[in-house]
Amino acid sequence: MTLHTILAVLALILALGYTWLNGFRDASTAVAAAVRTKALTPGIAVGVAAIFAFLGTLVSTSLGSFLISRLDLSLGSGVPGLMVLVCGILTATGWGLFCWWRGMPVSSTQGLLSGIAGATGAAALLGNRSMSNPLDILTGGVILPMIITPIVAYTISYLLVYPVIWLIRHHTASKVNATSRAGQALGACAVALGLGIQDGQRSGAMLTLVLLTAHYIDSPETTWQIQLLAATMLALGVCCGGWRIAHTLQHRLVKFDPLRGMVAQGVAAGLLYGGALLLHLPMSTNQAVSSAIVGAGANQPYETVSWRNVQRVVRHWLATPLICVPGGIILTLAAYPLTLL
Asked: Could you tell me if residue 340 is inside a domain?
């Protein structure tokens, strides 16, 4: 078996594993608010998240095609390109597992793109001129979404609480809570669908990119078979969902009622849809949901936000490129001798 074949198989396995890990980590994010306010039981919430994440991956390929077009210009082909993908995915996997263990809701997409940017930069420094634009990957895929998503999600959620409260000002508390819990159940479905549209499409793009880099396919289009495979792995990860991150979102950041939970989920879902289908911007489900929850929860007549814990989460967001870029560089430099075989 040649090195090219070994790397191609390894890259495919890692891409599928990272898709599973993505669902495992982010499933609880999609349904955390609904479980926190008892709009859904944990078992039903996970089932709902798996179904809608699966469907979301199959809805469109617009974001996936955009990512492929951006990354394919920066990656080499054959062994060097496969090595970059392997090193980038390995870096992102290690960081994702570490943050899951700590219960920190960081972005899987930003970790992956940061690792690939670092690996691409290292390969370019080693003289592979077919690889370029690591700063472009980092700016457009990591830094820009990291700035836009939390600010927009927090601001819209905070402001949207005002008109929603005005609309229900004459309703009883029990009716408001019942209606809000029903809205949260729908919101959990919407966020899970957004998880598929964002992260599922990215996973399909990565599988396509591996096959394209390995010269196993000629077209950069994500086929329905690849979409189905990505959707299945994401849904399987969701079904195994880890609840460490959900505990952070439910209890450590902010205390919120069903009304504010409904607002937060609606805003997060809207951002995920708009980012994928309109802006072609890889937005983080974790960042959208976390920021929306904090924004809606902050708009209360009494202090409910644990800003100390919010700062811990934000530090992990900022640390993602600071850890994954050097990680991708180090792994690529360490593995470089293999490309000479």
From this structure: no
Q: Which domain holds residue 305?
A: 3-127+134-335
Q: How many domains does the chain have?
A: 1
Q: Where are the alpha helices (DSSP H) in the chain?
A: 3-36, 42-59, 62-72, 78-101, 108-125, 134-138, 144-167, 173-195, 201-213, 224-239, 244-247, 258-273, 285-298, 307-339
Per-residue pLDDT in tens (0 to 9) along the chain, 341 residues = 688 899 999 999 999 999 999 888 877 777 777 887 788 887 888 888 889 999 999 987 778 877 887 776 566 678 888 999 999 999 999 999 999 888 888 999 999 999 999 998 888 888 776 566 778 888 888 999 999 999 999 999 999 999 999 998 888 888 988 999 999 889 889 999 999 999 999 999 999 999 988 888 888 788 889 999 999 999 998 888 766 676 666 667 888 888 998 999 999 999 999 988 888 888 888 899 999 999 998 998 787 888 999 999 999 999 999 999 999 999 999 988 877 66
Give the predicted TM-score (pTM) of the model.
Answer: 0.91
